[in-house]
Amino acid sequence: MLIRQTILYLPAQFLSPVAQFLSMMIWTWWLSPTEMSTFVLVTSTQELAYMVSRSWFSFYTLRFLPPAEDANGRRRYLETETTLIVLLTLPELAAAGLSMHFFDGRGDPLTVFLIISAYYVTRGLNNHFGERARAQDKILAYTLLLTSGPVGGLVAGLLATGAFGASAGELLLAYAAMQALGTALALPMIGASLRTARLDLAILKDAILNGGPMLAINGIGWFGENGIRYVVDHIGGSAAFGLMAVGWGLGRRSASVASMLVAVAAFPIAARLINAGDREAALDQLKTNAALLTAVLLPSVVGLWLVTDILVDLAVAETYRDVTRSILGLAAFGGMVRAYHAHATGQMLTLDRRYGLLVLIGLFEIAATTGLATVGFYMNYLVGVVVGALVASSLTLALSATIAIRLCGFRFPVADTTRIAVATLVMGLAVHVVDWPHTALGLVGAVSFGGLSYVAALAAVYYRHLPPLVGLITGKFAGTRP
């Protein structure tokens, strides 16, 4: 089931982060470090605005959306959703007002506020309706909602840049327009109520009780991931963060691309098993998820590290190259470690509703990341910041894994991890021994050769498991409609 669901969700999970990955390199050719800093800080803060305003209800929707067979329950939910969508726009507008200072006084204040507001509200709607589409297994709608901003915004941003020149404001407006279009196209596929009604108190109570703790947890997690951006902006200035933003963003995004290929399909399956009372099956599902997560993350991050010099020379503007080259690999490894906590051990705690422990782990991560990144800044400038964040993420994963294993019975896939590590080592050695030219052909060759080497090595270490795995996959898809 996990493999089939992962493949169905693959277009959205691949296209969206890949577009974000590419955009970080593309915008280096048009945006100055100061404009880059503004663009990245606004888009990062949108994630916090969404968490504060809508994420608690989105989490409830993903876990407890009434099935289509419950017509009355679905109607009550949709009417409550419409009312909340209107009300929860207000905190997003407040966040937009607070985010205006990222522009450092550039532009007309009202115009800046309207641009940020449009970006925050449209992206928030994409996020929420994307979670509902995911709960309903509406793959096409989910794909539209997840890709309209990153993919459509990238295309629209390139067109806007060619027509009007490059600035953070113009890019944000282009992204907002495509996000609005994505919602308009996807909403008829998943259904919605066009009328507001009095809030259903039973739904609201359940949403607060279940989504409220996740609001705190996700908010803390957001600071754990993004707090470093504001630390560097504060102690080093916007230009310093603008220089760091590219390498940091590319590294973290690469880990996100890899992890979400598996994670988006895994959590709903494990949640359904837990809700049905089948804990053993849920634990096995999480173990499988952890193995697949490692199988995708480890070679992706190692491969990126091996081709960093070629990639940076080809795709990143000269202003950003030195810093990007020095921190990209470190940022990717840190992203991999953090993704394992978020999508493996952390999911175990989420399914067991160990919200208090998740809050404590998140607070530990914030303190460790802020402290070690600050120390790193004064010891080794931007490289020190990223090293500090990597150490903090490693300590956080160690704490999360210890708690998940001892208190929840999380099953770490030791044998699978060993096999995957061996296959990744073979891939790394195969790529390393060849002197690849710093050209587009050299990059494609290194990536292709590395990928083929990894697949061959993985097949070798899993040779006894291949026949039943092939039978499982073909059995799942034979006669099955997506």
Automatic annotation (TrEMBL):
It is a multi-pass membrane protein. The keyword Ion transport does not apply. The chain crosses the membrane at residues 7-30, 109-127, 139-160, 172-194, 256-274, 286-307, 327-343, 355-375, 381-405, 417-434, 440-463. InterPro entries: Poly_Biosynth_Transport. Keywords: Cell membrane, Membrane, Transmembrane, Transmembrane helix. Its main location: membrane. This is Putative Polysaccharide biosynthesis protein. It is found in: Cell membrane. One of its GO terms (cellular component) is plasma membrane. The keyword Membrane applies.
